[in-house]
Design a protein that fits this description.
- The complex is a heterodimer of chains A (about 110) and B (about 110).
- With about 110 residues, chain A is mostly beta strands.
- Chain A has a single domain (about 5-110), classed as Sandwich (Immunoglobulin-like), CATH 2.60.40.
- Chain A has no helices and 11 strands.
- Chain B has strands at about 5, 10-15, 20-25, 30-40, 45-50, 55-60, 65-70, 75-80, 85-95, 105, 110-114.
- Chain B is built from no helices and 11 strands.
- Chain B is globular and about 40 Å long.
- In chain B, strands 2, 4, 5, 6, 9, 10 and 11 form a 7-stranded mixed β-sheet that branches.
- Chain B has a single domain (about 5-114), classed as Immunoglobulin-like.
- The chains are: A mainly beta (about 110), B mainly beta (about 110).
- The interface of A and B includes residues 49 and 91 of A.
Chain lengths: ~110, ~110
């Protein structure tokens, strides 16, 4: 069964305090890993797709990396507006273009 | 560019009443369409997905149903709502790719069943 586990469940940072979020997965034959940002009361917003181990993607203060077993979302010098829940997902093994999502990491950045 | 719309944004319904949530996508053709539910403090639960008009696959047996009457329209329905149907309902679309790909979400509908 496909499994996506995100840690920590919640993370509180001071503004400017860099950290990383983790997404570990157990799927056979990874066909991509996706990161999303979700603000309270809104739909998830697509951030990145990573396809192969060693790949990195960046957007402003966010950098996503991928290994054969996990992905990290590094947040450099975060600002309060980076506060959100970050979700990762992988294609399900069912082969029907569906995704399996982790439960997310709730990030709170205090000024 | 592609956009996805959902309505209504919020809904309060009594137990036993019917439900109809609508989702439309603009700027793409023949998308895969998805309905998810997100309960408080829980992850995204896939309810239904569709790879074409009239083609619906159900992931979770329940009192909800879905229909796709047009290429870019996806409807979530219920004949009689339960308290447990409360939650945040999200529609998403994805390009038709073998093995899965990015999905893009709408703004969501907050449903409260009283």
């Amino acid at each position: 069964e496909d499994q996506v586990t995100q840690s920590p469940e919640a993370l509180r940072l001071q503004e400017g305090e860099s950290s990383s979020l983790n997404c570990s997965y157990t799927v056979s034959g990874l066909r991509g890993l996706f990161w999303y940002r979700q603000d309270p009361g809104k739909g998830p917003e697509f951030l990145f797709t990573l396809y192969s181990a060693g790949e990195e993607k960046e957007k402003e203060r966010l950098k996503a990396t991928l290994t054969k077993k996990e992905s990290f979302l590094h947040i450099t010098a975060p600002k309060p507006e980076d506060s959100a829940t970050y979700l990762c997902a992988v294609p399900s093994n069912s082969g029907y273009s569906t995704l399996t999502f982790g439960k997310g990491t709730m990030l709170l950045v205090s000024p | 560019s592609q956009t996805i719309h959902q309505w209504p944004a919020t809904l309060v319904q009594p137990v036993g009443s019917p439900l109809s949530l609508e989702c439309t996508v603009e700027g793409t053709s023949n998308p895969n369409l998805y309905w998810y539910r997100q309960a408080a403090g829980r992850g995204l639960q896939l309810l239904f997905y569709s790879v074409g008009i009239g083609q619906i696959s159900s992931e979770v047996p329940q009192n909800l149903s879905a229909s796709r009457p047009q290429d870019r329209q996806f409807i979530l329905s219920s004949k009689k709502l339960l308290l447990s149907d409360s939650g945040f309902y999200l529609c998403a679309w994805g390009a038709v790719l073998a093995g899965g790909g990015e999905q893009f979400f709408g703004p969501g509908t907050r449903l409260t069943v009283l």
